[in-house]
Design a protein that fits this description.
Outer Surface Protein A, domain 3, 17 strands, repressor, histone H3K4 demethylase activity, about 400 residues, NO66-like, 3-stranded antiparallel beta sheet, Jelly Rolls, JmjC_dom
Length: about 400
């Protein structure tokens, strides 16, 4: 009920500033769309989205969808970085600017949990329940639907500035602008491909691989004549061999649980999540106490304050909870982290480096000590040189901060 509740998050002025910033391109960052007489169209030209071209599309009744607004807006970046930590899943966003009296998209359902925040103007929404059990919490989004495929909406409402509308995966929705006002809203999304089924997709192949390596029962040959009595064509046959075959399969599947590397599969999910994550937004004190505020600079004909002087008495801690994850992989022990991620989703490859196994205890010590500071000398490495070397590496990657700035300026 408060029209100013989302003030400062994102606005049409921010939309315009993004266009004028020169790094917005049709298709990659901006979609121009329309929906009329049951037909949804995309009108993207190629190249940079110049303000004159974009606003001409808008003036002629087209909707504008800005993809990845966190790449252009520090406030959206900060907002999503908080939500991704709370959800334990990627939090993304799109912003939608729609002219009065128009609709930009056909009815459809999505594969994400959607939170619609009305920023400016107002928009008329209709939301419909999943039509079948198969559409409840779907893995994938739908194609564009027609009005004839919809029943009666379970919710019909007009959002005004300051309002929020939530609908889960699988709920069909469509929004159109009333004749007397434009609409600017941001849709925040989360929990894409974050179900038990998605977890099992990682876990079961790994469990089967371990079973094949450790249990001869999984390596024994199939019966020579199983093709004669198994298969759809034989599914109605009464045959003791069929019963024995099915029981054997069920037994092997049940036994597979004993080989399931559940924690390792969770780590693989976490690794993917860290790749999805936005980099953390730093407070002024975090910046001053991290490599991002380190005062190395060019002065008087040469670089100065370049050396990172960490000692056994330097107090350190993780920059932020959840920014790093240890994973044991075939190639070795890897540390994945988010501090060097891009604000554009998956623009960069996953950020990680290999650790010597003797550093594992020290990384676990740092992870478990957060948010408390510890002295470098207390890291459980064998030598002081190793302790300082590890702390310096993590500081340079932005993973560690110090209790006090290393160089007073």
């Amino acid at each position: 009920g408060d029209p100013g509740y989302y003030a400062g998050l994102f606005s049409t002025a921010d939309f315009d500033a993004a266009l004028r910033g020169g790094d917005v391109h049709f298709g990659a960052h901006l979609d121009v769309t329309s929906y009329a007489e049951g037909v949804r169209e995309t009108h993207n030209p190629s190249g940079r989205a110049l303000p004159a071209v974009v606003w001409d599309f808008y003036q002629n009744g087209c909707s504008l969808r800005l993809l990845c607004p966190q790449a252009f807006s520090p406030t959206v970046w900060h907002f999503l970085s908080i939500l991704q930590e709370q959800f334990g899943s990627m939090a993304g966003a799109n912003t939608y600017l729609t002219p009065p009296g128009t609709q930009g998209f056909a009815p459809h359902y999505d594969d994400i949990e959607a939170f619609v925040l009305q920023l400016e103007g107002k928009k008329h929404w209709r939301v419909y329940s999943p039509r079948t059990d198969a559409e409840v919490l779907p893995q994938f989004s739908s194609t564009n639907l027609t009005q004839a495929e919809l029943g009666e909406p379970v919710l019909e409402t007009v959002l005004e500035a300051g309002d929020l509308l939530y609908f889960p995966r699988g709920f069909i929705h469509q929004g159109d602008c009333l004749p007397d006002a434009h609409s600017l809203h941001i849709t925040v999304s989360s929990y894409q491909r974050n179900s038990w089924g998605d977890f099992l997709e990682k876990l079961l192949p790994a469990a089967l691989q371990m079973a094949l390596e450790e249990d001869v029962e999984y390596r024994r040959g199939l019966p020579m004549d199983y093709l004669q009595y198994m298969g759809v064509a034989n599914s109605d046959a009464v045959d003791a061999r069929r019963t024995a075959f099915v029981e054997k399969v069920q037994s092997l599947i049940k036994k597979l649980v004993d080989y399931a590397p559940i924690d390792a599969a969770v780590d693989q999910r976490a690794k993917s999540f860290l790749h999805d994550c936005l980099p953390p937004v730093l407070t002024q004190s975090e910046k001053a106490q991290s490599v991002y505020g380190f005062p190395a600079r060019w002065q008087d004909g040469g670089p100065c304050d370049v050396d990172i002087l960490i000692t056994k008495d330097t107090e350190v801690r993780l920059l932020r909870h959840g920014i790093a994850r240890l994973c044991n992989e075939e190639a070795g022990v890897m540390l994945y982290y988010t501090t060097e991620n891009s604000r554009v989703y998956h623009k960069e490859e996953p950020k990680f480096f290999e650790l010597d196994p003797e550093y594992t205890d020290s990384i676990e010590f740092l992870l478990s000590s957060y948010p408390n500071h510890i002295t470098v000398g207390n890291l459980p490495c064998e030598t002081l040189e190793e302790k300082i070397s590890l702390a310096t590496l993590l500081f340079e990657k932005g993973i560690l901060t110090t209790k006090k700035p290393l160089v007073q300026v």
